[in-house]
Amino acid sequence: MELQIIKNENKELMIEFQSGDLTMPDLIASELLNNSDVEFAGVTKDHPEVGKPVLVVKTNKKKAMEAVEKALENIDEQFAEIKKALNKK
C-alpha cells in the first residue's frame, strides 16, 4: 500500500493514501476515535471519483503518529481474534 505523509507535526498528522479506496483510512480513523488522546480523526477526499483519501489526525497530548501506530496495533489484534474464532469452526 502506497502512502504519502503530507503533514507530520507533533499533534497533527495527514496521510494520503494513493488508492482511491476509503476502506483502510476509514477503519483507522474509526479506531483512532476510541483513543481519548485523539481530538479529531477523519478522512477527506477532494473528489469521490478521482481524489485520494487523506487521513487527518489531531491529538491532545500524545504524538499523532504514536496514536496511529497504536490504532494499527489494535486493528491487528482484532483481526487476529477474528482469525482465531474462524479457525475454531
List keywords for this structure.
89 residues, alpha+beta, four-stranded antiparallel beta sheet, 2 helices, globular, Gyrase A, domain 2
Structural class: alpha+beta
User: What's the total helix number?
Assistant: 2
Computed CA radius of gyration, to the nearest angstrom: 14 Å
Q: Give the N-to-C terminal Cα separation.
A: 31 Å
- What does the largest sheet look like? 4 strands, antiparallel
- The strands making up the biggest β-sheet line up spatially as 1-2-4-3
Helix fraction?
A: 25-40%
What is the level-2 CATH architecture name? 2-Layer Sandwich
In total, the number of strands is 4
Q: Average the pLDDT over all residues and give the rounded result.
A: 94
What letter string, H or E per element, gives the SSE order? EEHEEH
- Global outline: globular
Oligomeric status of the shown chains? single chain
* CATH homologous group name: RNA polymerase, RBP11-like subunit
Domain count, please report it: 1
Low-confidence stretches: none
* CATH class descriptor name: Alpha Beta
Structure description:
With about 90 residues, the protein is α+β, with helices and mostly antiparallel strands. It has a single domain (about 5-85), classed as Gyrase A, domain 2. Helix content is about 40%, strand content about 30%. It has 2 helices and 4 strands. The protein has helices spanning about 25-30, 65-85; strands spanning about 5-10, 10-15, 40-45, 55-60. Strands 1-2-4-3 form a 4-stranded antiparallel sheet, covered by helices on one side. Helix 1 packs across helix 2 (about 65-85). The longest helix has 24 residues, at about 65-85. The protein is globular. The relative contact order is 0.20.
